[in-house]
Amino acid sequence: xxxxxxxxxxxxxxxxxxxxxxxxxxxxxxxxxxxxxxxxxxxxxxxxxxxxxxxxxxxxxxxxxxxxxxxxxxxxxxxxxxxxxxxxxxxxxxxxxxxxxxxxxxxxxxxxxxxxxxxxxxxxxxxxxxxxxxxxxxxxxxxxx
Length: 145
Prior knowledge:
By secondary structure, the protein is α/β, with parallel strands linked by helices. The protein has helices at residues 9-16, 22-35, 45-58, 65-77, 88-101, 105-116, 127-130; strands spanning 5-7, 41-44, 82-84, 121-123, 137-139. It has a single domain, classed as Rossmann fold (3-Layer(aba) Sandwich).
């Protein structure tokens, strides 16, 4: 299958929010490719928590917290992708990354979690912040090459 690819929260959000926005179709196809076993994606507990927050509070069509919990539970139990978490050591590394590269602690925590789990490719729309971290290869799947 090749290199594992980390999915940032925005990919999950766009795959959820059905719309005419072309990012919906791209994100949805990425998720479907993962479910079909064509690509190996990795998500973290932090990404799932951020996704929960967006789909219950910031979405155009928010889910109830009960519905969102069911969706998160499905994503946790789904074997199509790998779920990773971070430790207190990762958190300390994230504080250093945040300071060194002047990015938010949340993006730094994703970067540190990726490095800890030997994942170096991230699919995200947030190129500006993640490109500051030299160990990461940032791919914006919404950009035409």
